[in-house]
Design goal:
Distance between the termini: 74 Å
Number of strands: 37
Helix content: 10-25%
Radius of gyration: 32 Å
Largest sheet: 13 strands, mixed
Structural class: alpha/beta
Strand content: 35-45%
Shape: flat
């Protein structure tokens, strides 16, 4: 039997249409059309209602959708479910809100801290020809177990009291130390491998070396502080000439006064930056505050309310890769050397343990535990080394891709010196609400 229409199938075989001339009358039954479609390979997803309408000549369209397949559903990716709860710090006043950053995810020895959920296979689809469409499976979680954590099946447990950390696909428990009041003579200089919380002030003249994050609920006065992670100061920072505040990640403070501050991550300040040397290898934000005097350097971006003051105090702002990124790369090179040295030491110890096993045929409980701990530490160091290499590649890319800018929402006073990359611009007259960017081998001033 000849049919006055043709059958069209989409390239992905998920749809089929009957194409006919506008004035052609259909004199066949829906069952006959279905059999005709089956003979041409379309056997699945047939839309019976549309066939009936077509055969009753109710459809005036030249192209009628008569079959539609089922798309496959991609499998859900694997995930990690955490079983620890953060202790949130309360917001005091309307000046600084730490709720998004100052969170302590704590665990005690033996606590289940996380569960790994496997990816799902997904749901198959079917095209109009009856062929199965295989779905894309979900991706498994990339996870490494760091220090003070252990994996048993799909569960991860803490093996010491501390703070649960999940960075760069490594889950670990960082032991932390809490100073209930001020850091004074009763505590002395503080050296700690994990995270430290000081519930009072840091008095002048002390040294603090922290491997993780440092939280100070009071203020910092004239102390020399290095933290491998972030530094959060609920009060302000008041420095002295020989003291330096150095953060391996971000730094937050209410104000910075006559201080030497360095951060590898962002710096956020609530009130003001006065007569200080402040360097961030990322960005500096003091959106509601003043920047007066000193030298302020950022790798890419700086945002403030006012720059300088009515007394025309010399204020310098440097933006760009020429200083900050080169310093960052130098620091990463030092970290790479240190990590490689540590891996070499771990390899020597592991080889000795393997030699002991070869001589005696077995290792004791302590030796097996030590060998396992060394292997976990080595895996963590290898991951850190990979992360540093990736960061160095990003820095190499960023050298050519930087789009530096300075935003001043309020007033720029005279005697403000701007440097973006290798171009400099002294400001001899006041201006308001502007953006400084590099354009055509000079610094352009653009109204906000």
């Amino acid at each position: 039997m000849a049919f006055p229409f043709t059958l069209e199938v989409s390239s992905d075989r998920l749809k089929a249409w009957i194409c006919k001339e506008e004035d052609v009358k259909i004199n066949v039954t829906a069952d006959e059309v279905r059999k005709w479609m089956n003979a041409q390979g379309v056997i699945s997803g047939i839309m019976e209602n549309e066939l009936e309408r077509l055969c009753r000549n109710d459809s005036r369209s030249k192209r009628v959708l008569v079959a539609e397949g089922v798309k496959p559903v991609k499998g859900q990716d694997g995930k990690i479910i955490f079983h620890v709860s953060p202790h949130l710090e309360k917001k005091e006043g309307n000046i600084v809100d730490y709720r998004d950053t100052m969170k302590i995810f704590s665990a005690e020895t033996g606590d289940r801290i996380a569960t790994i959920v496997d990816p799902e296979a997904g749901t198959s689809g079917m095209d109009v020809c009856g062929n199965e469409i295989v779905p894309e499976p979900g991706k498994a979680v990339r996870l490494k177990i760091g220090p003070h954590a252990i994996r048993h099946g799909k569960e991860i447990f803490a093996v010491t009291d501390g703070e649960v950390s999940f960075n760069w696909n490594v889950i670990q428990v960082n032991p932390f130390y809490v100073v209930d009041g001020d850091l004074d003579l009763s505590i002395g200089n503080l050296y700690f491998v994990g995270n430290v919380t000081i519930k009072g002030n840091v008095r002048p003249g002390y040294k603090i070396r922290v491997g993780g994050d440092l939280k100070v609920f009071g203020m910092i006065e004239g102390s020399d502080i290095h933290a491998g992670g972030s530094i959060y100061v609920k009060g302000g920072i008041h420095g002295e000439p020989d003291c330096q505040i150095k953060a391996g990640a971000m730094l937050k403070a209410l104000y910075i006064n006559e201080a030497n501050v360095h951060a590898f991550g962002d710096i956020e300040v609530g009130h003001y930056i006065l007569h200080s040397h402040v360097t961030s290898y990322q960005s500096i934000r003091c959106k509601n505050g003043h920047l007066i005097g000193g030298i302020t350097q950022a790798g890419k971006f700086l945002e403030i309310r006012d720059a300088g003051n009515i007394h025309y105090t010399r204020t310098q702002i440097h933006i760009g890769q020429t200083k900050a990124i080169e310093l960052h790369k130098s620091e990463l090179d030092k970290q790479t050397k240190q990590i490689k040295d540590n891996i070499s030491k771990l390899t020597v110890i592991a080889n000795r343990l393997e030699e002991m096993k070869g001589e005696t045929g077995f290792l004791g409980v302590k030796e097996r535990a030590l060998l396992m701990k060394h292997q976990q530490t080595r895996d963590l160091l290898e991951q850190q080394l990979l992360n540093i290499r990736e960061e160095l590649l990003r820095l190499e890319y960023r050298v050519d891709q930087l789009d530096e800018e300075i935003i001043v929402h309020g007033v720029c006073y005279p005697n403000l010196h701007i440097q973006i990359g290798k171009y400099a611009k002294p400001l001899n007259q006041a201006c308001r609400s502007v953006r400084f960017i590099e354009r055509g081998k000079e610094i352009a001033v653009i109204p906000l």
